[in-house]
Design brief:
Blueprint (H helix, E strand, L loop, with lengths): L12 E3 L3 E3 L5 E5 L6 H14 L3 E3 L17 H14 L2 E5 L6 H5 L4 E4 L7 H8 L5 E4 L6 H12 L6 E5 L17 H8 L4 E3 L1 H5 L2 H13 L4 E5 L17 H17 L1
Parallel strand pairs: 3-4, 3-10, 4-5, 5-6, 6-7, 7-8, 8-9, 9-10
Antiparallel strand pairs: 1-2
Helix pairs in contact: 1-2, 1-9, 4-5, 8-9
Bound molecules: phosphoenolpyruvate and manganese (II) ion.
């Protein structure tokens, strides 16, 4: 179902009435790694909306490497996120980590995010596959393209065909950057599949000053969208501050990306 042989044209995934992923426009998703407070998410929502984002990101359930790190605000975070999105006219993308939370997250999200660590959590994939909400599936940090597309197949085989693929960097021998962002995944996945491809330059690089160059490359190579971490005060962020952009940097970047999208 995810393969080119099933659908020879590109899938366009509608998010509500007016946002399309896989259309002509490069869709910007932005927001903090984690929802930390009502004030933090509403301020970020206003800033990213003004810059041109269509979708607000923010984790309420965080897959942290250490169990002692901030795990997210859970339902309270989902409430703040939805409220901020409604006030600004943005759509919501947020991660669901547990099949038992799919119903809860569905009440607040417009798009489910499946994190890299859960790319092969087959029960979770099937559970979101039973819903009618779009799913953004992040590539596992050591998944091949075929494994990635088979994970999408798990979702689609349950009836939900609205899957967006997201490249967020893979593990290689290189340790200078957090991950190695595989930009060539865009043309490769376009060759193998009809599903839209989004690039995450934040997790892909792990360093805020590399996010812009990676994002520009992603647009130039044909990504259907970008998901970027933005925080009012990256230095005080409870997660992923080092790779988060301040409001003004994000705005500058979006202006830059518009030029590239137009030039090509
Ligand atoms: C995230 O988007 O904050 C996240 C945890 O991403 P990934 O699953 O790609 O690590
Ligand atoms: Mn993050």
């Amino acid at each position: 179902l995810a393969g080119k042989s099933f659908n020879d044209s590109r899938s366009r995934i509608k998010i509500g009435e007016d946002v399309v992923i896989g259309g002509k426009e490069v869709v910007m998703m932005a927001g903090p790694c984690a929802v930390e407070s009502e004030q933090q998410i509403i301020n970020t929502a206003r800033a990213v909306k003004k810059a041109g984002a269509k979708i607000l990101r923010g984790g309420a359930f965080k897959p942290r490497t250490s169990p002692y790190s901030f795990q997210g605000l859970h339902e309270k975070g989902l409430k703040y996120l939805k409220k901020a999105a409604e006030e600004t006219g943005l759509k919501v993308i947020t991660e669901v980590m547990d099949p038992r939370d799919v119903e809860l997250v569905a009440r607040y999200a417009d798009i489910f995010q499946i994190g890299a660590r859960n790319m092969q959590n087959f029960f979770l994939l099937k559970e979101v596959g039973k819903t009618d909400k779009p799913v953004m599936l992040k590539r596992g940090m050591n998944a091949t393209y075929k494994e990635f597309l088979m994970a999408a197949e798990y979702i689609m085989s349950e009836g939900n065909h609205d899957v967006i693929l997201c490249e967020r960097g893979i593990r290689t021998f290189e340790t200078y950057t957090r991950n190695t962002l595989d930009l060539v995944s865009v043309p490769v996945l376009n060759k193998l599949s009809h599903l839209p491809v989004v690039i995450d330059p934040s997790h892909g690089t792990g360093q805020w000053d590399l996010v812009g160059p990676a994002a520009r490359g992603a647009v130039a190579i044909g990504a259907d969208g970008l998901i970027i971490e933005v925080h009012p005060e990256p230095i005080n962020a409870l997660s992923d501050g080092q790779q988060s952009l301040k409001f003004d940097k994000f705005e500058e970047l979006v202006d830059d990306l518009k030029k590239i999208a137009r030039a090509i």
